[in-house]
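Interim report, section 4.2 (structural modelling).
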Amino acid sequence: LIFSSLLFLFTYLPVVLAVYYLTPLKWRNLMLLIANLIFYGWGEPIYIVIMFASIGIDYTHGLLVEKYRDNDKKARLVVASSMFFNLALLFFFKYYDFLADSLRGISIFSGLPRLGLELPIGISFYTFQTMSYTVDVYRGEAKAQKSIVNFGTFVTLFPQLIAGPILQYRDLDKQLSVREHSMEKFASGVRVFIAGLAKKVLLANSIGMLWDVYKAMPASSLTTAGAWLGVLAFTFQIYFDFSGYSDMAVGLGRMLGFEFMKNFNYPYISRSITEFWRRWHISLSSWFRNYLYIPLGGNRRGKARQYLNLFVVWAATGIWHGASWNFLLWGLYFFVLLVMEKAFLLKALEKAPRWVSHVYALFFILVGWAIFGVEELGALGGYLAAMFGAAQGGIWCASDGYYLMNYAVLLPVLAAASTPLGAKLMARLPEKAMRIAAPVLIACALVLCTAYLVDATYNPFLYFRF
Amino acid sequence: VKKLQWSQIRGAVHKRLRAAWEALKKPSGIETAIFLVFIFGLTAVNIFTADRTFSPIENRNLKQRPVFSWEKLFSGKFMEDYEEYITDQFAERDGWTALKAGSERVLGKRENNGVYICGDTLIERFELTDQTQLSSNLRAVDRFVGNVDVPVYLMLIPSAAEIWQEKLPAGAPGVDQAAILESLPGRTQAQVVDGYAALMAHKDEAIYYRTDHHWTSLGACYGADALLRAMGLEGVSPTDFKPETVSTNFYGTLYSTSGARYVAPDSIEIYVPDEGITVESVEADGRREGMLYDRSRLPQKDQYSMFMGGNQPLAVIRTGNEGGRLLLIRDSYADSEVPFLTGAFSEIHMIDLRYYKMDIAGYVRENGIDQVVVSYSLKNFSEDKNVYFLGLSAAGK
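Predicted structure of the assembly:
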């Protein structure tokens, strides 16, 4: 089930909210667990089994870590075993086919069969979350969860189950047993949820159709202007889609009394790639920092080791986004940029005029999205070549003009919505105006989103590969 | 005791209502209320709205509530069907789609659901990524030419996206239909009829509907004229007839798919009177009397099906005139074209390859057919997979 669907908005959500608030406090987690499993099983009912296995294994590991608290060797062994299970699960479903395809050329691996398994939705998110649990318990940053219902609720919590934010157990620990429910919190949840829904349905889906046009275009008719217009469209699509999803998750969480971390913070206003990654998919970067970069030694073991650690982290970040070479390439592309920035570029960028650093950051972000968006390496080569002047279709053609005209209103809206401009304006409104503006905006967004969903010819879910 | 209870209840209700009212005065109360009323309200409305089987405005059958089975549940098919069902049966569906189309218009979009919006005219987008199907269909026509002893003509009709190119938004993408049509004579052994030139000469007239993908009777008249002349017969001209307007409220397929509800309706004209003409419609379950114009279709949504009473597998028109026997292998464009051909033939047999799967070459011999015309819109001919059956022959030549 996805949030931006009529079934979610007009059947699942009202039922869950009504039952949740009618359920006595002490039964609410159990009720949520059941609701989560229905949400998860809606698309692929068979994979609920994996979910049960995942909950059972990690729950047991947490208790074991606590049991061996005084025996570090055994405790470490338990953590390692938990890592093994989670990574094995992730590897088997997500990377096996990719690896088998890549290795088949080597004679001893030529017999590797292709399994063609459907990727269980959200597996990259929940395996990361359960790994954080065992590690947090080991580090003493959280206590082991005694109640399997509470633990199951944490793993499957539907607002963030399929597209994040990736929760870290220590942030959720207390909220699982006690959390505040209030109308103020619920209303702020409504605001964030609606903003996210509008981002996804009205902005991301609309501009996504433009990217699809250029992505599908054969290299023979792609122009330089078209290639840039296409990648600009994808830049907007992925941001509004992904951050819209995260906003919806945060909003739904608040409606149920939870507080999740912020996942996006206007990434496109960054003045360097370093800054971009502090603002983009924050929960993923902080996961990799806490559970990979720092355990590897971070920057405490000398420059050479630090660069090696960065390399590992960015290769992992890349391949986390999908089992395909272009994602690895994308991760390493950022590794190179980040290392260069650390070495000298960042200082230069700070001294440079603001517009120079903005242009610099946006340029590399856009090129990055081209690498991310065109999965097949041959096609990617053609697309990048078109962007940098070697387009077979020439610099510009009439249909580029047609598409530009079609999105002439939407593109500036998207650009403005990528900056804190709107939020600043809202904050400046006098309270009285705000009292009228907020409900009106909420009502309009709800009505428009419903209209776009009823007539949906295009409503993709981009994270099925994550 | 009773009195006390009553006042207690009243007090409690009063207190609750008061609390709710106080909450509504706060901004967070109003926002929460709007959200909850919207999602719960629409959910309730959807539960109590009766399901429809057919959408007249979209001209298609709507998804019905899927039947539950464990098998379908485990495969996920049930959920998939259920989501489509919810979308199709959403209360006030037509109003929502119109709202979306309207807001797309405000955003300056010149296109919705594959239809170009050109002022008061709607034009279907026609893109052709490759010509594989077209080429294979041309080969089927060639095989057919080899299987029969009578002349075979091929007439492919360009769509409005070509003839009315000037009305399209600047730079609107689409296939170069003129180039394809021009290449035809070198690509087939059938005798090619130039429908493009015939229509291009009258591009400023109402030769296509503004809300439908078909040509109008006027367009069909120019097409029929080109065809008759190519066959060495006397042509037809609109001035030969006294047109009768049979409908002024025709909203066609493009109106439905584009959601552009503000476009004025089309009118439908009949040029050739159907007196003295009999139509026999042959279907799998037997023969029945057909009509050149089935006016009972006019109150329905798909008014174009008035011509010939919609798609038929096989129809035989006896015109009462002198002339040979014509076989028309056709799509729906021919339904409004065939009246103009009645003057030149004694019999016109019309076969729709989508439904008629018998040996066509054999049909030509058995029915004493003198001439064959393969008449399609270029778009259908480039996409249709049934033209293949034309080239098959049970007996060979």
